[in-house]
Amino acid sequence: MHALRSLERALAETVSGPRLMRYVTDLARWHRHAGTPDERAAADYLAEVLDNFGYATRVLVHDAYISLPGQARLEWNGRAIPVKAHSFSRPSPAGGLEADMLYAGAGRPSDFEGLDVRGKILLLEGVAGPSAAREASRRGAAGQVHISPHEHIHDMCVSPVWGSPTDEDLARLPATVIVSAAAEHGSALRDAVARGPQRLRLHVEMDTGWRQTPIVEASLPGRDPDHWLMFSGHFCSWYAGAMDNGGANATMLEVAQLCAEHRDRWARGMRVLFWSGHSQGRYSSSTWYADARWEDIHAGCVGHINVDSTGGAGNTVVADTTAMAETGAIADDLLKTYAGQEWSGRHMHRAGDQAFWGIGLSCLFANMSEQPSEPGHVNPMAAVFGGGDRRGAGTGWWWHTPHDTVDKVDEAILVRDTRIYLGAVWRFLTSPVLPLGFAAAAREISAVLEDLQRAAGDRFDLSPCLDRAAAVERLAVQLTREVSRGGERPTARTREINRCLVGLQRALVPIRYARAGPFDQDPALALPLLPGLDDARRLAHLDRGSDEARHLTVRLIRARNRVATALSAAIRTLEDCLAGAEEPR
Predict the structure, then answer these.
(1) Higher-pLDDT residue of 392, 484
(2) Burial class, 363, CB count within 10 angstroms (exposed 0-12 / middle 13-18 / buried 19+)
(3) CB 274, CB 215: distance < 8 Å
(4) Quick check: pTM over 0.85?
(5) Can you give the pLDDT at residue 585?
């Protein structure tokens, strides 16, 4: 692998900051809202650039359910307060929505305890999101006013429905009128409602419905005609979207060009995909592609590398980027090599255009670079990107605002981020054996199962799954040892190993990351690892003979069967592959 690594380092040195910034500047000419002429102009631009690199490029156009916020205002005590509406809010009725205001904390389930929110406009802390929207809708609220953590209001999508909704999903869309106010105005409302009842009126215009939206797809084959890497990011934006997602689109173009210049080294092909409908359609394009190309992806895709918001000014931290257990080693090595940082081990979370977990794609990266976490200072974006003990604290304050302009992109940081992505794509394209470590994935499964078994105690038996996870790890370690003895030249044996690794993705990714199964999408809400079994934690707190415990046990048995069956499939895949190593060649 030495020659491939040397070429990777040499390519990384050729990443061009001026060229990256030119792409960012070009894309920022358009406000790339989903399904608009500006977005289509940007799609045509991307397709032309990729054509010039030698890719087979096309713009796919599909129907998507898109929600573009219009004018919004809040009236209170004769004052008009500036607010911003959010994608998939309900529009207000003619004359506005008038109701009493009720403070409900951050809108978590516990914040609603003891409150009758029916018909009320709720005052809620923090950036608007799908979880609070779902809770408020479920409990009969009429509206929501979110208090931004600072003077800026961030455009958000509040729908928990992933992708364009089906007929069954329509009832799960938000049922309330939803706006956000800046911290100053939200604080005034909070203080007022603490003194006594307050009456509000919300005016919100929304443009929600079906639109034609574009996907830019650029393909190049490698030596293996059957397998290809998915390299993707959204190109739609809020406003100019220079960082989000112009920086990422620039990264994608640079990586696509530099890798294409050395196609002779590719062991497998690549599709570079630019999505629409990221925020304004809740990942509608990537989900459409997962649905429309399901068999194609299942048969040939060897993994998914996603790019979002590279190059933001001050975004010095990359250690908290996300990866799956099997892509963790490559993530750690790339971050050390090109940024001098050690990967924190943060696993993928339910966000971004990660619409392919049910199909079974191992994934690497999404949002990468973040502002550093500072003691005593809470970045308002940290809550959106995930809390806990983290080194990163979300992207810059300009995220999802009109201030996301070219001056918010730092050329040196964009070069650093692009080098990391170049290394990731290069290794997936050129390594004779795919850079995936499924022994780590099996250890992760075992650790989660052991934790669930401790929580459930004698109320539920997970030993069949634990035994099989241990077997997967043992066999995967054997395969890793064989791979470590291989060389740079592809052989019939490396092709067998790669088929095995693709099979392991299909078996093990869905049980760790998807509850809904291979053909549907989970909501845009947080999911734990092994989500189907996670409610085993509840059993120890329920009366043994209760209906609730018995109903839950029925569901957990089915989830256990699914996990055990997937682990058995992984064992068979590994055993068949390892048996091939013993045959004379």
Answers:
(1) 484
(2) buried
(3) yes
(4) yes
(5) 38
